[in-house]
Amino acid sequence: MADKESNAGFKTKRTHGTNDVAEKILLNRNEVFADVVNGCLFDGRRAIKAGMLENAQPESAFTEDGSIHSEYRDVSKFLNLNGKTFRIMLIGIENQSHPDRRMAARTLCYDAAGYIEQFSQGARLYPVVTIVLYYGKEKWNYPQNLLGELDLKNVPCEIKDRINDYQMRAFFDIGHMPIAELRRRFKSAFYFVAEYFSQINRGEEAHPSQNKVTIKDARLVLRMLKAMSGGDPAFEEVINSIAKKNENEVETMGSILTPYYQHKLDNAVKVAVKKNSQEVKEKETITYAKNVMKSLNLPAEKALELLGVPEVDRPKYLQLLQAEKAHK
After folding, report:
1. Residue in 47, 28, 29 with CA at minimum distance from that of residue 38
2. Do residues 58 and 72 touch, judged by C-beta distance below 8 A?
3. d(CA 73, CA 95)
4. Rounded CA gap, 51 and 77, in Å?
5. Coil, strand, or helix at residue 323?
6. pLDDT greater than 50 at residue 51
7. Whole-angstrom Cα distance, residue 221 to residue 23?
8. What does the pLDDT look like over 191-200, one tens digit per residue?
9. 105 or 209, which is more confident?
């Protein structure tokens, strides 16, 4: 679960908030889950198909000392061969929007719960793999192995070599991957999530590619973005704007995000007015106009119109855009 540092050991209860659920629905779709697995574990090769996946309970439960213990994952699925007759692996995906100093220990807990649950079934054990997706802007400076998290300063040297280690072997810094690499790895609607965080983490405004997306997938992407970005109300504006559209209709994410740009620009202008800063207002308007032009492949005048810039002000912004282009 994003942003939460779990306490030591396993939990017996967990509350699922709206944001928690929203960030998982997109990844729970088999075609998206398969795409993330392929993008992360197979370097973009289409090795895993949606039909090979079977939903697994996010909660792994087991009995110990007469009590029921449990551990919750964000999303998890079984990987099967020959339809669903031969189970070969359990794969979990964990979303992180902030660094977590205990992530290796948490991953160990998730994986251990998956193995302990298998013990009670008496069958031959199959592997458990946890993919950690990190979207945050802050650099992940915490260790990616258990020993790196432990306080070993008072442990005798002779014992240190006997302590079992556990590594996060499937950690992926999505938020800092170059766009070209994201495009190579991911082909599903998850690409738009990865693209968004890659752009904003570089200090840019989001300007999605011209890739097509269904309205159904766009809703799931937007809800995940809203959840992972702390509930940004600009995303709710977009979700409301497409609420009545046919879910099978196809558009570009750039065109769908027009209300997002409008909302951001409106807020920026309000701040500029409060500060009595014409310079800030002009700068923000130019920034969002360029984003719309790039995302929708539109001329400057049409972009200004979509952003709701008053007609009387458009000649001034057209001149500013032309001057900036000439300066480059």
Report:
1. 47
2. yes
3. 10
4. 12
5. helix
6. yes
7. 9
8. 999 999 999 9
9. 105
DSSP string over 159-187: HHTTSPP-B-TTEEEGGGS-HHHHHHH--
Query: What pLDDT is recorded for position 85?
Result: 66
d(CA 79, CA 72): 19
Q: pTM for the full model?
A: 0.80
The answer for 263, left when phi > 0, alpha when psi is -120 to 50, beta otherwise, is alpha
Q: Residue 176 corresponds to which tokens in the numbers above?
A: 């800092």
**What is d(CA 106, CA 109) in angstroms, rounded to the nearest whole number?**
5
- Return the SS3 of 11: strand
Cβ-count burial 159-184 (b if 16+ within 10 Å, e if not): eeeeeeebebebbbbbbbbeeeebbe
Interatomic CA distance for residues 150 and 162, integer angstroms? 14
Taking only the tens place, the pLDDT of each residue in 223-274 is 999 998 888 888 999 999 999 999 999 999 988 988 888 888 887 777 777 7
Which tokens in the block code for residue 160? 């240190």
